[in-house]
Amino acid sequence: MIRLSKLTDYAIVVMSEMARHVGTVHTVSHLAERTGVPSPTVAKLMKTLTPAGLTTSHRGAAGGYALSRAADAISIAEIITALDGPIALTACVEGGDSQCGVQRLCPMRGGWEKVNSAIRGALEQVTLADMMGPPAWAEGPPGPLNGMEAGSTPARRAAV
């Protein structure tokens, strides 16, 4: 099974919340409150998403973070790459972070890159805006007492 990291899942949830309020500078605590993602995790995400060019940081008393561009201009592939590294199913493909010990002899050499290109291309076609549905909660912040199961992730709450 191919699975994205929890950080990538949380990043999409947090960035979706940011996109719902274009032109607003969001604090870590505000984003944590509105999404149910813990504040330390939101802070960690912002420290990764900002250097990747997906969010911008605003200093000062009214500081915080904002999306660097519109949600329809941010691909899911960009978010995955920022948090999980290059989209690669095996170590022997372009952008993989390790070398295969039998790469010179492997009959699959080059074959996996076709699969990776197809997956990367599909993920580049899906934008943050495409992932955004209506907010999962309308009357208050998400949580176990708001009709959600205890321990459910923000992405699962957003999908409800």
From TrEMBL:
Region Disordered: start-end pairs: 134-160
Top-level taxon of the source organism: Bacteria
Pfam families listed in its UniProt record: Rrf2
UniProt cross-references to InterPro entries, sorted A to Z: SUF_FeS_clus_asmbl_reg, TR_Rrf2-type_CS, Tscrpt_reg_Rrf2, WH-like_DNA-bd_sf, WH_DNA-bd_sf
PROSITE patterns assigned: HTH_RRF2_1, HTH_RRF2_2
PANTHER family: TRANSCRIPTIONAL REGULATOR, WINGED HELIX-TURN-HELIX TRANSCRIPTIONAL REGULATOR, RRF2 FAMILY
Name by which UniProt lists this protein: SUF system Fe-S cluster assembly regulator
Native organism taxonomy: Bacteria, Pseudomonadati, Pseudomonadota, Alphaproteobacteria, Rhodospirillales
